[in-house]
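Service request form, structural biology core

Requester: graduate student, group of Dr. S.
Request type: structure prediction, single chain
Budget code: on file
Notes: please return the result as structure tokens.

Sequence provided:
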Amino acid sequence: MIRQHTAVAEAQLPAGTFTLCPVEPATDAGLVHAWMNDPAVARYWEMARPVEHIASYLRGQIASIRSTPYLGHLDGIPMSYWELYRADLDPLADHYPAEPRDAGVHLLLGPSEYRGRGLGAALLRAVSDWQLRIDPYVGRVVAEPDIRNTRSVRAFERAGFQMNGQLDLPDKRAALMVRERPQ
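Core staff response, request fulfilled:
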């Protein structure tokens, strides 16, 4: 179903027009809930919870001073969930050598037909390009996918991120992925 959202970013990709739009919990919680409860997603996100919990979680993200949730659309169809955040203000900063204004990114590809096609790398590059473009003080974008999620780690690498080691986080062992601002 095509929904009308106000895009904050747009990129032309070989797969179509990608737009990034702020999440609206009242209308988007059911969709994010369905994606979070997909066993392939739940394995890594660990958010297979009732829709009311997801709606509350999304409202909390919006109220946060450090993280903002988005839906990604391809040709107007919602197909990904994003959290863009200030990694230097996040609890993650206690687990790696954070730098001032580090940006962070989390990605969930929703419908299974969008997974395994190499689309994740193109999306990650487009979104991290946008993060670096909108804030001239951001020197790099970081991510911490579960080290067991080899498809995700490869997508980050293809998007220009480099693995800068592994992190023992409270809920997972993660790959520290870093994309530096181009010189």
